[in-house]
Amino acid sequence: MTSISEVADILDLDQILDQTCSLARSVGEIQKANLSGRNLGIATKSSGVDLVTEVDHYSEQYLITALRHTYPQHAILSEEQGQQIGHSEYLWIIDPLDGTTNYAQGLPIFSISIALQYRGQTVMGVVYAPVVDQIFTAIRGKGAFLNGKPIAVSKKTELGQCVLATGFPYDRATHPDNNVNYFAHFTPRVRGIRRMGSAAYDLANVASGALDGYWELNLSIWDVAAGALLVEEAGGKVVYLPKKRGVSLVAGNPAMCERILTEMAMVDAD
User: Fold this and answer.
1) pLDDT tens for each residue of 91-111
2) Which site in 13, 54, 148, 228 is 20 to 30 Å from 184, CA atoms measured?
3) Domains in the chain with CATH codes
4) How far apart, in whole angstroms, are the C-alpha atoms of residue 87 and residue 82?
5) Cα–Cα nearest to 250, from 187, 206, 192, 194
6) Between the CA of residue 122 and those of 137, 165, 190, what are the distances in Å?
7) Is the pTM of this model over 0.85?
8) Which tens digit of pLDDT belongs to each residue from 199-219?
């Protein structure tokens, strides 16, 4: 386990956090300026519902260029590149536009996710939702914040009082492990389920207590690296599901994670 003091001896994480927030806000301005645009250059990737736009690519290149200029010795892993640039104990993990389907539709729910790892452990994370101007930040061991104010996960423990969030894999039409069975199980048992279309923003809202819990299957590391740190630093828990595809996880306060996992096990046992 990486000690935060070990990293702090080498890097000024507070300064890096400030720089990262400024970078996220700059990219957010680009995205807002092009929201609802008619010439987004929309294309598909892994399936017909897995979209990418020119704004995704531009945002990614903007971030990579800035990070390589400021931290030339650091490695970078980004969604659209799909591969790591460079080799280092320090790895930036970025999702330049999480929620591309929303963005392509002109829906204002999307986010920018930027995380910094040291020796495989996330030590700093930023999730920025440009339209609502919410910037979620965390440094390992120093708590989580929304627009500079401390945040904490929900304390609810009863499913019937909870609003959960989830999402569905891009190959949901062709792969049987597509979350539909869990969704159907939870729907009558909770106060509400939200499907916002941005895993990073879902996790950030779990960290702030706006959502009481979250589960999703077959994500990627760039979807969750920053958001998972936010949840943990807000007093919550992230449980990874190694028997599921890709990065699959449950998040919330510890009791809520156990409740969600118990219900999922019931579905699996049927």
Assistant:
1) 999 999 999 999 988 999 999
2) 228
3) 4-150 (3.30.540.10), 159-269 (3.40.190.80)
4) 15
5) 206
6) 12, 23, 32
7) yes
8) 999 999 999 999 999 999 999
